[in-house]
Design brief:
The complex is a heterodimer of chains A (245) and B (763). In chain A, 37% of the residues lie in helices and 13% in strands. Chain A is α/β, with parallel strands linked by helices and 245 residues long. A 7-stranded mixed β-sheet of chain A has the order 2-1-3-4-7-6-5, sandwiched between helices. In chain A, β6 and β7 form a beta hairpin. Chain A is globular and about 50 Å long. Chain B contains 16 helices and 35 strands.
């Protein structure tokens, strides 16, 4: 009987698998970069963020991010890539550098989240080294608080994350858009939940309000990837100005 | 004469007395300037040498000695230049008086007693004695003029007046240099002064001053006999910007009718647009029509005033202009049902085009989404449905894009008819698919579905599967789907672009629509990209939300996304009827054709690569607007030459507004079609302004020192100055430098100086 039920379950899963695997073409799918080293420090974080995006916004999402190697052409299936990690990372291959450069230049976006929350730590150094190779002519600079990224869905006035080591986001601008956004405050740590639905980490110093702000910043990052400077259009200005006053 | 005879007898006794009647000094020297300068230097040295050692003499004596030396030196210099006397036999040339007579069509108009031309003929006959009296000092040259001046043997009797315009200034300029070596002494001008080249009293005065001889003008100063109402002038810029105000200024003139006001009507393609009342001040009424053209391209506008009883010319109560409307910036409204990559890449493409003014509305949160923050902590704004989708706001957009957008959650059902009307009136609608577009968005059986290029009502409404697009026959010829590199076959880029995913099936095409790309994997190959002209506007359907693959995923295979950019750039241009996109082009010689002249235009047919297409078959059909439906249009069939060119002509069409429709075929395929408006004027330019202009004739006469008289008065006294010009029949040069008298003068000067020096003890 036991083997029969296993068979039934297997058959059911087999039938369901293609439907589950085939994402809707209009859905947002995020590619999670597999660089090597500790490149997936919070495995549940992105899924949780995407679930919140699906609940709070009209964006249709595929909940599971797709792991993708920068050495593979598959990165061109995901205009939005997320690279999180901690510790020293192995250097990128020349092919990976070339592909990532092409990805970002032709409209892609890369969100980098440092889980080690240690300014000038090994991950930070690895990231800066890699970016200097991917986009050698561009510079990682602080994103001003007035940037549209802070109002692409929520009006966000403060930085967020599991910790608040860096009171700013950094980014690399290509033409008029930020193709790379880098946070050192471990956003993923604030989003991650365990299998029982409990938050994996406490956030400090702001507590649960800071966690909510982390989700809001995550939603804004995704909205920015999909809408760019839409909220800078003139039609939005009077409303946003009034709410910020 | 006695002096001349004495000189001749002395210097040239063989010439005979009376042969020469004039003389003048000439120099026969062939010395170069350098030699003359050297000689002058020698004279100066001689003068300076003479002045040496005179310091003890009184100043008067010194001056006298130096002067004598200087005069002697200059005399020598003069003799070096070999002076001579030229004896001449000369005669005076008679001047000319031009009898300049206007034979333009307006001279056929009536006066109290016969036509203007008849009155002129009579006046010339009556003035014959006075004119022939001038013949002793001047030659009378008869000249007729209208567009140009034409010398004639004599003024014809009767005077036939058929000139299509009156160019008074040009005629005066031409008679000033049309001479046979004789000076112009005066102009006797017979005209009604109804100049058609824009001459005013001020410019006429300047023309007369330039001529430099008196003008004696005979004209018609009594306005009573030309009762008429005429559109004198229509002022409008050559082009206007779409959706921006444009003004047509109209000037109406009347004489002899006693009107205080008149109604002026503006029509577009014969459809009345507006009527305004214009009040007359000093016989002229002005009115301005301001409107905003709604679409680009050329349109014919007609301006008319009602015909009054007793008008001498009725055809000048109507005229027209052809206005070219161009685009300032394209105003595009992009409405998206949710943020997605397809939405983002299209927005990015539109934003990068500096000629596009983009207004985007994305639904960031649907009514079913959770609200986890208070309103004031969110950057969301209400969706201004009423403001966007009702006239006149909707009409201000050149293109409306519905991208993966369903109207249902926003209670927009009753706004869909405004979008249908907007398209039918000349707007452009682009619907891009997704799981909220077309049937999936609930558009079947709505007013909006009536203007789409694809027929809705398909099941299922959304197919998420992957597929490769297939180029249709129409797509091979259409610029929208010509997205490859220059010179590349149309189908080539589709073989290397990544497959698409997600499709909005349909039940085929609406009437008049064309499929450019179709789904290759479904039965019947339903349309993927389809276009349609609806009423005055256009619509386009893109039944997928994955076209962004051509922009971003194509980067994987090394493409820079140019195919994606070309597709959307051309699609937008097609939607707004960009004339530059048409492969059949018409370049008219004149859009407003004067009465009695032919309609003429150069046609060009271009291949898919936009180079001239040789051997294409062209059909040109001229249709007169307002003509009965069963009236036969004029049709011409032509073949294009090497560069895809051809010329079409239609001889002397009747007055009215015309539409020239041109379509082309090549190798069994229809290439395209275009239209061009023409206006054939009812009145010739000459009769548009038939009123006599005595003020112009008066200005000419006064500025030139002549006189103006009415046709009822006799010709004034014509004063002709003595001729200045002489003709030399014979001449002879007699040298003087080698005769005795100059030698004795030199000897006298030198002897005088010697004597004075000796007296002063210097010798």
């Amino acid at each position: 009987m036991l083997s029969l039920s296993k068979l039934w379950i297997s058959a059911l899963l087999f039938c369901l698998w293609p439907a589950a695997a085939q994402a809707e073409p209009g859905q947002l799918k995020i590619g999670r970069l597999e660089i090597g080293g500790q490149d997936n420090p919070h495995p549940t974080a992105l899924r949780r963020l995407l679930w919140e995006v699906s609940q709070r916004t009209s964006v249709e999402v595929q909940l599971e991010p797709e792991p993708v190697s920068p050495d593979s052409d598959a990165i061109f299936h995901y205009p939005l890539l997320v690279w999180s990690g901690s510790g020293e990372l192995p250097p990128l291959s020349e092919e990976a550098v070339r592909r990532l450069r092409r990805h970002l230049t032709f409209g892609g976006m890369l969100i980098i989240d440092s889980a080690e929350a240690q300014p000038d730590g090994p991950f930070d150094r690895s990231v800066r080294r890699a970016l200097a190779r991917i986009l050698p002519r561009a510079e990682l600079t602080r994103i001003p608080n007035s940037h549209v990224l802070y109002k692409s869905f929520y009006l966000v006035d403060h930085q967020a994350g599991r910790v608040l080591h860096a009171p700013y986001l950094e980014g690399i601008k290509l033409e008029d858009r930020y193709a790379v956004v880098y946070t050192q405050n471990d956003l993923g740590g604030a989003w991650a939940r365990d299998a029982f639905g409990r938050w994996e980490f406490s956030v400090s110093p702001g507590g649960e309000r800071q966690r909510e702000m982390s989700f809001r910043l995550g939603v804004n990052l995704i909205m920015y990837a999909l809408c760019l400077d839409y909220k800078d259009d003139l039609v939005h200005s009077p409303f946003i100005k009034r709410r910020r006053e | 004469m006695g002096f001349i005879d004495t000189i001749v007898r002395w210097l040239a006794p063989d010439a005979g007395v009376g042969v020469f009647n004039d003389w003048r000094w000439v120099l026969n020297s062939s010395l170069s300037t350098g030699w003359l300068a050297l000689a002058a230097l020698a004279v100066l040295l001689a003068v300076a040498g003479g002045a040496w050692g005179q310091a003890r003499l009184p100043i008067r004596s010194r001056l006298l000695l130096v002067s004598l030396r200087l005069v002697a030196g200059l005399w020598v210099l003069l003799l070096f230049m070999r002076p001579a006397i030229e004896l001449r036999a000369v005669s005076r040339v008679r001047t000319r008086v031009v009898l300049l007579v206007d034979d333009s069509r307006s001279m056929e108009l009536p006066t109290r007693d016969g036509s203007r031309a008849e009155r002129v003929s009579e006046h010339i006959k009556d003035s014959a004695r006075q004119l022939s009296a001038l013949s002793s000092t001047a030659l009378i040259e008869p000249v007729l003029f209208s567009e140009h001046s034409r010398p004639v043997e004599s003024i014809p009797e009767p005077l036939v007046c058929g000139g299509k315009s009156t160019k008074l200034g040009r005629a005066l300029s031409e008679v000033s240099w049309q001479s046979s070596g004789r000076d112009l002494a005066a102009v006797v001008l017979y005209s009604d002064g109804a100049d058609t080249s824009g001459l005013t009293p001020d410019t006429a005065a300047r023309e007369a001053e330039k001529l430099g001889v008196p003008i004696y003008a005979v004209g018609f100063s009594d306005p009573r006999y030309t009762a008429d109402l005429a559109i004198r002038r229509v002022l409008v810029d050559d082009f206007a910007f779409v959706h921006n105000p444009v003004t047509i200024d109209v000037e109406v003139e009347q004489q002899g009718l006693g009107l205080s006001e008149v109604e002026v009507t503006l029509r577009r393609d014969l459809e009345p647009m507006m009527t305004k009342t214009a009040r007359f001040v000093d016989g002229v009424a002005r009115v301005s029509f301001e409107f905003k053209p709604g679409r680009i391209g050329k349109r014919a506008y007609q301006i008319s005033v009602p015909v009054q009883a007793g008008e001498v010319v009725k055809s000048n109560n109507e005229t027209g202009v052809v206005l070219k409307v161009i685009r300032d910036r394209l105003r595009v409204l992009q409405v998206a049902g949710r943020p997605s990559w397809d939405v983002r890449f299209l927005r990015e493409h539109l934003e990068q085009n500096p000629n596009i003014d983009l207004i985007s509305f994305f639904i960031l949160r649907s009514p079913t989404d959770l609200e986890k923050a208070p309103q004031h902590e969110m950057a969301l704004i209400p969706f201004p449905v009423n403001e966007l989708f009702t006239p006149p706001e909707i009409d201000s957009f050149d293109v409306v894009i519905y991208q993966d957008f369903s109207y249902r959650p926003y209670r927009m059902a009753h706004y869909l008819r405004f979008i249908r009307d907007y398209v039918e009136k000349g707007g452009a609608l682009l619907m891009v698919g997704g799981d909220q577009g077309f049937d999936a968005g609930g558009y079947a059986d709505t007013e909006l579905a009536e203007v789409l290029p694809i027929r809705l009502g398909a099941h299922p409404a959304w197919d998420p599967g992957e597929f490769s697009p297939r180029l249709t026959e129409a797509g091979r010829q259409h610029p929208i789907t010509h997205i490859g590199e220059p010179g590349e076959p149309t189908e080539a880029p589709y073989q290397r672009l990544p497959p698409l995913a997600g499709f909005n099936p349909s039940r085929g095409l609406m009437p008049g629509a064309q499929a450019l790309l179709s789904h290759s994997g479904l039965p019947g190959n339903p349309p993927l990209v389809a276009i349609r002209s609806v009423g005055e506007g256009r619509s386009m359907a893109v039944a997928t939300s994955s076209l962004w693959y051509w922009r971003f995923r194509a980067a994987e295979s090394g493409s820079a996304g140019r195919a994606y950019d070309r597709f959307w750039t051309t699609a937008l241009r097609w939607l707004v009827r960009d004339p530059e996109l048409s492969r059949v082009r018409v370049e008219p010689k004149r859009s407003v054709v004067p009465s009695g002249e032919r309609i003429e235009a150069e046609l060009r047919v271009l291949g898919p690569d936009y180079r001239g297409l040789k051997g294409a078959k062209l059909h040109a059909e001229l249709h007169r607007l307002g003509e009965e439906a069963d009236a036969e249009p004029k049709l011409r069939t032509l073949r294009t030459g090497k560069r895809g060119e051809a010329v079409v002509e239609f001889e002397r069409p009747h007055a009215g507004s015309y539409q020239l429709r041109v379509w082309a075929e090549h190798a069994g395929h229809r290439i395209g079609e275009t239209t061009e408006p023409f206006i054939v004027e009812a009145a010739s330019r000459e009769l548009m302004s038939p009123f006599p202009r005595p003020e112009i004739l008066r200005a000419l006469a006064e500025a030139s020192g002549g006189a103006f008289v009415d046709i009822e008065e006799p010709l004034p006294k014509i004063e002709v100055k003595d001729p200045r010009r002489v003709e030399v029949d014979r001449s002879r040069r007699v040298p003087v430098w080698n005769t005795w008298p100059p030698f004795f003068v030199l000897l006298g000067l030198l002897a005088s100086e010697w004597w004075l020096r000796r007296r002063a003890g210097l010798v």
